[in-house]
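Anyone? Bumping this.
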Amino acid sequence: MTASTTYIRRPELHAVEMDGELVMMGADQGEYFSLRDVAASLWQHLEQPRTLDELCDLVAAEYDVSAQDCRADIVAFLDDLTAKSMVDERS
Amino acid sequence: MSTGVDIAPHHYVCYGLHVASEFQLDELDPVEAPPGPADVVVRRAELPGVPDGVAVLPHGMWRLGDRCGFHVDGVGRYEIRAGREILVDPAAGVARRTIRLYLLGTALGALMAQRDHLVLHGNAVRIGDGCAVVLGHSGAGKSTLAAEFSRRGLDIFSDDVVPVTRDGLAMPGSARIKLWADALEGLGVSPDGLQRVDRAHDKFQLPIRRNPLSPLPLRWIYVLERSATPALAIEPVRGATCYALLHEHTYRNEFIHGDDAVQRHLEQCARLLPRVRMSRVNRPADTMTPVATADAIIADIGAPLSGSAPDDGANEESVPA
């Protein structure tokens, strides 16, 4: 991961919103994930390519947290999404 | 290929639809011909099979826009069009009841999915002014449980296939339960005089008595699962797990293939889930009986409901065996 690495969600994933929770089917048929709160918000932002810095700034603008303090959680979330083939990473 | 005016001498109602069929369908109740056109026409046709360039799914299934089909060796080809037509191209010499088995199962299920129903693989039973559906894999004991509910005087809504509308209504199907010979024996029913599902299966059609049924809101979903726990327990499920279970137990879920089908299924689940209470029925393999399972489900339904709002994971809904 470098400063210029961007992340974007995979276009083929389908999602619905239910009670403030975003539920989506994963790359494998029948595998579902649900995202809420900050995670759901990050997912919306990932509709277009975003760098880690941009995502931290977006979260800091929306929630009462500094870009620096949320960084580690966002990195972990991106790693998780990458492992589940839910986002594409572009250097 | 036979085209033009259909001469369909047999008329039935199934899942709330008027079906006009060239084939006699013994499993459905005959009705008078409707004054206008039927909702669904079943006819014989020569079918070429999978259209060019279309991915073949498991079991020879395929889907292209509002058409889908499948092929069963030695039985024939089926094609389902736009939720209105089922075309059947029977293999030479196949038994009529075998044609009907796939016609009333996979083909009619696919047709209901084309009509924007969430088609669940399970059995439904009427409870007051709503209904409960029991889901489970083949062999999980769904039909035996339905027979037990029927024995207790409850109306069985549908056996094996339960189509649910966009508004969360379950549609009543055939008044028969398909049971294996050993399940009949367990219920103390002799298979003598019952019709076999087909020659290849030791499975029989058990007609059931029931009151006339209209579509009813689906309120409870129970998923039968084997478990290593010592006692039978009912456990609520929430969130993404509900979607995974509904996908797993959607009838012929191989057809949920392609972007439009996946998105539609997801939306159907999202519309249904706020209206129902979904639970797993964890059953220890050694002691699972239809009687104990029926007792637990009825006790769970009878338990004070926490209202329509999703509750926050309290485990008061567990029922001891």
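Late reply, but here is one note on the structure posted above: The longest helix of chain B spans residues 96-114.
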